[in-house]
Amino acid sequence: MTDHTSKVLRVGALARVEGEGALYLCLQDGEVAEARLAIYEPPRFFEAFLRGRSYREPPDITARVCGICPVAYQMSACRAIEDACGVVVGGQLAALRRLLYCGEWIESQTLHIYLLHAPDFLGADSATDLARTHHADVERGLRLKQAGNAIVELLGGRAIHPINARLGGFHRLPTPSELRPLAEQLRRARDDAAATARWVADFDFPDAGCDHDLLALAEPGTYAIESGTPTVMISPSGAGLPADTNRALPTRTFDVCEFDDHVVETQVPHSTALHSRLDGHRHLTGTLARYAISGRWLSPIALEAAQDAGLGNPREGAVCRNPFRSIVVRAIEVLYAVDEALRIIDAYEPTPRACVDVPPRAGTGYGATEAPRGMLYHRYSMRDDGTITDASIVPPTAQNQGAIEHDLLRLVQERLGSGQPTDAELAFLCEKAIRNHDPCISCSAHFLNLTVLREGRSASIRDGGRDSQR
Amino acid sequence: MSAEPDHRARRPKLAVWKFASCDGCQLTLLDCEDELLGIAENMEISYFLEASSAPGPGPYDLSLVEGSVTTQHDAERIQHIRNVSSRLVTIGACATAGGVQALRNYADVAEFLAVVYARPDYIETLATSTPISAHVPVDFELRGCPIDRGQLIEVIVAFLAGRTPNVPAHSVCFECKRRGNVCVTVAHGTPCLGPVTHSGCGALCPTYGRGCYGCFGPSNSTNFGAFIPLLRRDGMNTLDVVRVLRTFNTAAPEFDAASRKELRQ
Ligand code: SF4
Ligand code: SF4
After folding, report:
1. Does the annotation flag A226 for ligand binding?
2. Would an 8 Å CB–CB cutoff place A139 in contact with chain B?
3. Where do the annotations place Fe cation binding (chain A) (predicted)?
4. What is the pLDDT of residues A431-444, one digit of tens each?
5. How far is the first Cα of chain B from the last one, in angstroms, to the nearest whole number?
6. Domains of chain A
7. ipTM above 0.85?
8. Do the Cβ atoms of A44 and B115 come within 8 Å?
9. Smallest Cα–Cα separation from A195: which of A344, A332, A318?
10. Contact B18 A445 (CB under 8 A)
11. Are B4 and B61 within 8 A, CB to CB?
12. Which CATH architecture best describes the domain B13-161?
């Protein structure tokens, strides 16, 4: 650290996210020279110990990467391994997988909206704190989250690390009579989801834009969740436009088996999570990207709610590039997922077999699905007896890290331009900006240590009220 | 366990800590939708970073610890947490048995690092993943990967009432019988770890027609001598047996010993 002395501001925790983060800001001449988000997760080595395991195991094992989105891991693993085995799961079994995934979307996105993100807009520290001033709202959130959990519990056996998903389908199928009470609960949840969209639409949002390429799956005709083709929407600057342009821009697609050629991971010294670039550019995956790419396929009720919430009409090319409004888009996705779950249940006809056979064969398979917080890619190679020889997992947060850093840089720059922020103000601003993207940096304790390097002066401040007991 | 301070005077303070883990066990607390606000009325949720950005200072009356110890830094941090906690309860397979990341205990960690990272030298990690009890005294261990919501509430209620949690240590087979399930091993020849696995899940897998894979870890009495021939009869070879024991509770002493014995034979 050359001639500067580092100023270590322990803001305590990067709270209300999964994982441990540290942030490094380097300020020179009133400008932000660098913003680096470091993720310090103790490595858990999933890719290493999947080698030598049976091809039937990744759905159960990789679920344990993340307790917040285990279904996403199970579904990406199933797709990749079935791809290697040349099996496509279709019909009612595919519909039930989508239903299971809808459950996780409802549960996880609602968790983020009410328990992690809304407190930022309403001046509370937590949802229980929020419950003192907004009791009915928090109760609605918990009820909605419960409806998502109810889907995952019925189809998956339990809400966290479901046991019923397997290669080729399920171990056991639900009966129509089991689905009936679920449908009743979901009809109430649809009202709660619509009310949620109205609630968050009224929050105060700072003006902001984001200038990243957007990456999401696309499946024309439906809002892509558990399958689709990787699709890229270019960044505004790529089209010579300002960052906050809320219009759809040109897209291109590539096959999921070319994912490794396009999304290239590099390791950086400051983080245990790998950084990735999409065709050499910074990119963002997750709610905003999905909405930009699939928004036109929303169901009528979700489409109407999006317009009522001020997001414009995605069928006419409206997108949202304000990361602070991601909470609104997330609420629309929850409403869509509830509506979609009801549609699937209505159309459900029991099939004779709970799964199709997936015989092993030598080869490599690729799979990507839309985890609530972004595209999750798996690749497996195996021998003809089904023994895995190589595994690769690219989670959404690792992909988003560069985009989050860029957002931070812009926001801090803007804040510096409008006065002299204290380090505590900067820290809070940065925490909020990070939470916009619902990063899931699981696998560690949660701390955001903010290091600010300011030219010519240094100090070490510890924000007592937010002390992190470490 | 007892809730020692008089909580008419003040609500006991709850803290939730995380080590190497997936967050699933602490998320179980947030999944108690019907009870969450009630818990918050009876206990001060003082330190819970997944849920609150205003951590309160210790000491804490009840600390729930998720995750295993995999870095030198964490080995030091758990000492501090023990010092500021009256009661310390581990939640989940990671905290009670090293978790799935304890698979490194059988491997060369340098090799593992090289598989995942281009620059292994940037990464700080211990060669092992160890349970919390390997580092500090633990007052109660709650099993499961993930833990069961009902059992978690029982632990909290028992703490508030000053009694020991009522969490039986018998096997999954008991729960299957109580649920009236047909035994998947007897009826279908499906390999099932139920006879050696700790209860708590309500015999979930057999209820869904699959064999138990042991996510709650070993039950209080395991007879591997009688059990492993059963797995073989149902079609598992040595490597299958070793793999199923070496998954989410691989560092639990009973599973560890049985898998090592298998490999020696
Ligand atoms: S025990 Fe399982 S559910 Fe709990 S933290 Fe560990 S991996 Fe996650
Ligand atoms: S039956 Fe076994 S593997 Fe399945 S949930 Fe219960 S303890 Fe876990």
Report:
1. no
2. yes
3. 69, 443
4. 888 888 877 643 22
5. 43
6. 20-42+401-465 (no CATH), 88-207+324-356 (1.10.645.10), 213-321 (no CATH)
7. yes
8. no
9. A332
10. yes
11. yes
12. 3-Layer(aba) Sandwich (3.40)
